[in-house]
Amino acid sequence: MSEVEEKGRKSSEESTDDSEEEESEEEPKLKYERLTNGVTEILLKDAASCMTVHDKFLALGTHFGKVYLLDVQGNVTQKFEISSVKINQISLDESGEHVGICSEDGKVQVVGLYTREGFHENFDCPIKVVALHPQFSKSNNKQFVTGGNKLLLYERNWLSRWKTCILHEGEGTITNIKWRANLIAWSNNVGVKIYDISTKQRITNVLRDNSSLRPDMYPCSLCWKDNATLIIGWGSSVKICAVKERDPTEMRDLPSRYVEIVSAFETEFFISGLAPLADQLVTLYYVKETSEHMDEEFRARPRLDIIQPLAENCEEISSDALTVRSFQDNECRDYRLEHSEGESLFYIISPKDIVVAKERDQDDHIDWLLDKKKYEEALMAAEISFKNIKRHDVQKIGMAYINHLVERGDYDTAARKCQKVLGKNMELWENEVYRFKTIGQLKAISQYLPRGDLRLRPAIYEMILHEFLKTDYEGFATLVREWPGELYNNMTIVQAVNDHLKKDSTNSTLLTTLAELYTYDQRYDRALEIYLRLRHKDVYQLIHKHNLFSSIEDKIVLLMDFDKEKAVDMLLDNEDKISTDRVVEELKDRPELLHIYLHKLFKRDHHKGQRYHERQISLYAEYDRPNLLPFLRDSTHCPLEKALEICQQRNFVEETVFLLSRMGNCRQALQMIMEELADVDKAIEFAKEQDDAELWEDLISYSIDKPPFITGLLNNIGTHVDPILLIHRIKEGMEIPNLRDSLVKILQDYNLQILLREGCKKILVSDSLSLLQKMHRTQMKGVRVDEENICESCHTTILPSDTAQPFSVVVFHCRHMFHRECQPSGAIPGVQFCNICSAKKRGPGSGILEMKK
């Protein structure tokens, strides 16, 4: 809950704070200020009795019978001397051109503020309320109502005379009237009634709930939310009434409209005024003393609450206790609440004070957040609404946030916020850098310094680099990697690093950073030396990026020692820059590295390094025997005699067998397989590859006294050699492992071959029959003969020019045509063949058609 504190009386201006917060984190919804200037002087000598609000001006009535027109700042623009007693009510039409006034002595006046027309009447009883037609300025709407002990409607006819009509009487004094569009709502001692001026019908009567309260002490508050929604506050009861159109089928003798109460609830205190705020309600409460234990001052202060109406109760949104002048002397009837629909302004009127309540804007919201030290939320709110805020600046709020974070010791967050808050203001950036240096927190701000289009002076970056170089080598290296080299003087930093290396020459972090600085400075040779010394992974990237191949010709061994795979790939990818001969020359004293290089070269292209294939034989034999045999198979340039000599010296059987077979000495190769390897499967495989009958004979001869070899032969030679030849040569009584299984396999293989042959035969017969049928269908088709065809023998037109003469033509299936007389007689009587196709060996074609005429 908040208070409006009295600041004191001043002749020029008097105001209150926006609402002083209690120890609560809940932000108030409204802000308050006193209406001062001319109002201050009026209320010093007089007391406010009523006030009406228009979007353009205010109309204030006093207890001494005066009416003042005020601007929204409270300055008096016009004054009317109406009576010597209390002004009870002032009414304005929507245009603000006419004003209706009634007073306690029975006077009623309706005057035009900009015209001379008017109405003056004196009644013999007090007139409590007056209400002009909302469109009173229009000639056809010259109507107003007054309320005393009866409700009177005044209407000017076409003769400019006023006629009077009693709308209601007999239920006590009329205490309040509100006119909206065609509906007039009024309250008396019994309840609230609504009259439809268009149909001249009274459409409802809403009884008051607490009849024990005196109507003159606790008057009814009425307020139209819109043209069809009336809000009634009486005592501690609130009702929201909706005016609805009645279904024509239900009318009969009933009014065309009816009222439905959509919400009704009780409040904690007595209601002095109501006003709508969107779908919520602003309520002015008179706080009645209910307990002797409650603080007396607080009890008497009026409250302005915002509530959310529900069907049977309400939810409090905000509540403010207002310290208005002389609140201790006021009763419920002394307070009024008026509102300006256009600007959501709420005027709390009391006899000695007028307070204006406004919805808090974004500037007020930011003020509250800053007061609560919620700087981050304030900054976010300012950024979102930067076009709407008037009293605040986003950057100033951001600076306040940074200062707050620094005071709290949260340097990392403060530095991070600098990026957003300082933007492109170089002066602010440099000030912040020096401030962080003063408090010893340059490291915190270093990673957020601008390094794009906006750049600070080089001295700023150098200062930070020197700071890191003194205390944090890793942080220094990170900044050098992340910051572009043009941010600072590179030579200055290089010199500083060299000075530190004099004290610690083996520090890898400093050496790596120095290499990067040399790279920025395009001194690549110096950087390469350091990378190779450190065996740094970026050495290959540096070579590629800056084309340093001429600088590494004498450093190939170092590169290979560092990373053989990357080095070889780099050398092979750039053979045009570093030749194979140069690499081989550099690696001649390191045969294991030479082998790796030549092996990858051979994998890429079998012919490129052919001059080194002879050397590679011994390299493979020494360092990589598993790849020797594939090399011998793929290479067409290595000398076989030299390779055979090396393999025999090292007793490489498989390689020797391959070389012997390659050189044509298959029998010796087979002998080595059988004697050295004793591997019958490999021997059989070798014999299959060579497909030589003599080799099979040698294999059988060698295996005939070795039962395991015989088993292997029986299982595998069935498709190459007749198994009977082997079986006949097996000695009687020799025990052969798995002989039964081997013989069964031979028979199964034989049966499979027979089945395959029969299947192939069936397929061939079926295909032959199909092709024969196709040929027959083709030969049965007719052949077109016309004047364009010629005889293949005499080369004249096949048809005579005079087709009436008898002629004879022979046409073959090959489409060759002859005159009968040009066709030689066939060797076989009755059978004719095309001489042309027979001569070309395309197969004789038989005559398919003989035409005669």
UniProtKB/TrEMBL annotation:
A Gene Ontology BP annotation from the UniProt entry: endosomal vesicle fusion
SUPFAM superfamilies, per the entry: TPR-like, WD40 repeat-like
Molecular functions (GO terms): zinc ion binding
Domain Vps41 beta-propeller: residue ranges: 30-359
Ranges of the CHCR repeats in the UniProt entry: 568-712
Record-level GO cellular component terms: clathrin-coated vesicle; cytosol; early endosome membrane; Golgi apparatus; HOPS complex; late endosome membrane; lysosomal membrane
Keywords in alphabetical order: Autophagy, Cytoplasm, Cytoplasmic vesicle, Endosome, Golgi apparatus, Lysosome, Membrane, Metal-binding, Protein transport, Transport, Zinc, Zinc-finger
Subcellular location(s) per record: Cytoplasm, Cytosol; Early endosome membrane; Endosome membrane; Late endosome membrane
Pfam families, A to Z: Beta-prop_Vps41, TPR_Vps41, zf-RING_Vps41
Membrane topology recorded in Swiss-Prot or TrEMBL: Peripheral membrane protein
SMART domains in alphabetical order: CLH (SM00299)
Domain of life: Eukaryota
Compositionally biased intervals (Basic and acidic residues): 1-13
Domain Vps41 C-terminal RING finger: 789-839
Location of region: Disordered: 1-30
Biased composition (Acidic residues): 14-26
Function per UniProt: Plays a role in vesicle-mediated protein trafficking to lysosomal compartments including the endocytic membrane transport pathways.
Family recorded in the similarity comment: Belongs to the VPS41 family.
Name of the protein described by the UniProt record: Vacuolar protein sorting-associated protein 41 homolog
Gene name for this UniProt entry: vps41
